[in-house]
Amino acid sequence: MSLISTEPKDAPRVGERKPERGVDTLAEARTWLKERGIEDIECITPDLAGVARGKLMPADKFFSSTVMSMPSSVFTTTITGEYPEEDDAFQHDPSDGDVFLKPDFSTLTAVPWASEPTAQIIHDAFHRDGRAFDLGPRQILRRIVGLYEREGLRAVVAPEIEFYLVKQNLDPDYPLEPPIGRSGRAEASRQSYSIQHVNEFDDLFDDIYEFSEKQGLEIDTLIHEEGAAQMEINLRHGDPLALADQVFTFKRTIREAALRHKMYATFMAKPMSREPGSAMHIHQSVVDIETGRNIFSDDEGNPTPAFFSFIAGLQKYLPAVMCILAPYVNSFRRLTRGTAAPINVHWGYDNRTVGIRVPNSGPGSRRVENRVPSSDANPYLAVAASLACGLLGMQQRLAPEEPISGSARGLPFGLPRGLLEALALFEDSGDLAEVFGPRFMATYRAIKQQEYETFMNVISSWERQHLLLAV
Predict the structure, then answer these.
(1) Across-strand partners of 282?
(2) Which ranges carry the GS beta-grasp domain (predicted)?
(3) What are phi and psi of 283, to 5 degrees?
(4) Are 155 and 295 in contact (CB under 8 A)?
(5) 193-202 in b/e burial notation, b at 16+ Cβ within 10 A?
(6) How do residues 210-252 score in pLDDT, each as one tens digit?
(7) Contact 135, 440 (CB under 8 A)
(8) For 437, left (φ over 0), alpha (ψ -120 to 50), or beta?
(9) Cα 101 from chain centre
(10) Exposure winner among 115, 120, 159, 466, fewest CB in 10 A?
């Protein structure tokens, strides 16, 4: 069976700038690669952790074979490469059969850090009979986007991704440290929005911008965040799948650029105990497909019932999807009282102490910012989960609590305190099972439980420090 489209398209006009990212057909892909002298192609797809999996092959072989496959078990492995135990709800494929990968030509772009001319293309996973593979993160996000389309709606998102630059750490038993900047010194204080401290890593950010330009990726803004050598990149708003693809690609890009400068870029939610955690905030709005109007505002520019119901859906269901938005034990270390991270699902206008913030904006750009997800989350699943919560709120016509006008940091916790609590809420939500599908729910829960058990086999320095000689 062929999974590659060969439909023709009009040739580019004379003098038209060649796109750096994306084509429509196999024929255009062949021309695109030939014009750039591409020798190899990375055929990749995100797994449930957001890790790029796939195959590297010569360009000629890519065009000689229309079908590429990969074991389905790739989508049931933990972050440590183990496999979860079976139970009543989750079972492995007894034959470990293949899933078939179809290239999405809109994602074709260069790999600017590669030593040889190389391209990358993100693939979707399918069953042999052509059905979408229900454990593929891109397919899960497509499913949620499709639910909006059934309602005549189009979701729009804009992610913000925080990350740390750290010294290379060859021994994981040693704590991470900020890297040395161009001044010869490491940061030792909080420098939120400091231009000077961004300039400490000018050479690195020059590479990030260059790599991004060569991949057709658009950075909206770059800022220094609160933590030592903590940065944030904001992306322009757009289609949820396209933006999740960009986050997926940006993570690879930033890590590769950092390695060139003998440092690491990490998207761990809480890499250093005395520094703030890293988030992936998701701005969301919803547009009527027929009219193009933002449904969060009425003709007079006032917020609509749909706007309030979207917020209410986040309030009701965010705790139940926390295992997606905060997918590791480390993720919950970020969500502590007295930090910039939210600990509850209250909402407010231009209020950064709550989990759900409504930024200042005009009626046409009225949106809701979900501040709960951590930067270690799979961008496809995090966007899908956040949009699913809002959609359920609108479908059920939920009403939100009153907005918080002051600080919400002293209010009680409204989010799970740990991964096991989050998994229990996830598993018990029948509404989410209808949205995500029972197989994904069971598989994701089993993977996270196995990761938790693996973590529990590790003895921490805290235990050796405080328990070794005291108990």
Answers:
(1) 159, 370
(2) 39-130
(3) -85, 135
(4) no
(5) eeeebbebbe
(6) 999 999 998 888 899 999 999 999 999 999 999 999 999 999 9
(7) yes
(8) left
(9) 21
(10) 115
- Side-chain-side CA neighbours of residue 244 (13 Å): 29
435: buried, middle or exposed (CB in 10 Å: 19+, 13-18, 0-12)?
A: buried
CB 458 within 8 A of CB 330: no
- Under a CB-based contact definition with an 8 Å cutoff, are residues 259 and 185 in contact? no
Residue carrying the six token digits 């009701």: 316
Separation of alpha carbons 127 and 437, rounded Å: 16
Strand 109-110 versus strand 118-126 pairing type: antiparallel
Name the burial class of residue 210, with classes exposed (0-12), middle (13-18) and buried (19+) by CB atoms within 10 angstroms of its CB: middle
Residue 39 one-letter amino acid:
E
Q: Return the CATH class of domain 26-129.
A: alpha beta
Tokens of 159: 């992610």
* Contacts with 223 (C-beta within 8 Å, 6 or more apart), sequence order: 193, 198, 231, 232, 234
Q: Which two tokens stand for residue 241?
A: 């799948």
319 secondary structure, DSSP code: G
What's the half-sphere exposure (Cβ side, CA atoms, 13 Å) at 356?
A: 31
Distance CA 92, CA 73 (A): 8
- Other residues' Cβ atoms within 10 Å of the Cβ of residue 466: 11
Give the dihedral of Cα atoms 373, 376, 379, 384; nearest 10 deg.
Answer: -40
Look up residue 200 and give its amino acid: E
**How many C-beta neighbours within 10 Å does residue 18 have?**
10
